[in-house]
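>> received
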Amino acid sequence: MLALKAPRPLKPYARALRFGWKSFVRLFGARHPRSCTVCGHHGRFFSYGYPLVADVLCPGCLSLERHRLLALYLSENKVFAGKDVLHFAPEEGMTRIVKQQGPSKYTTCDLFASNVDLKINIEQIALPDESFDRVLCLHVLEHVDDRKAMAEIHRILKPGGVAIVMVPIEEGWDTTYENPAITAPAERLYHFGQEDHVRYFGRDLRDRLKAAGFSLNEYTAHEPYVLNHGLKRGEKVFVCTKSG
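>> returned
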């Protein structure tokens, strides 16, 4: 005689549907107005990312949370005024904001992009020592050998120079999660959140930057700016200074 299978409980399905509906409303039906610190747009932001996150993409300039946090920091700190600036992987909105501060020289660079001033490998920068006052490095270090890149950035900065650094970071982790054996794009997406990322930084990012010779200050996304500008709670701008 065949035993009858017990019916599957409906509770997990009901709960999943309930929270799925709440997520749908949050992602596609939210109407809370935001203000973009990059382009000045005021209104609804759109969902973006993998997995989808609500209120992330500005429809005016396509800025993301990190761009608006950096723009907010720069509105309070004129770090590029009168300085020689090297900008890795530049994006249009951030280029405009840097130029508005009036740097004495502004140079863009990337290893693959065509619309830059210099083709540069951040792990082996073909520039002389102490070439720049400022370096802007926004969400680059998670793609490369970060220790080599940090050392090279430190080398090309003048004494007292500053590197502005942002990366994806999980503050709940003591150490950075990385595995050089994970090379397939689909696996990197699963492990690191993007097909071309090679790590998720933990709190030890600070130790890595200090080991490269930097002293650190941090600028953190907090309220009311998170709500007003669609920022990621607790996200950091790392202000890295080379000793004079």
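>> The longest strand covers residues 157-166.
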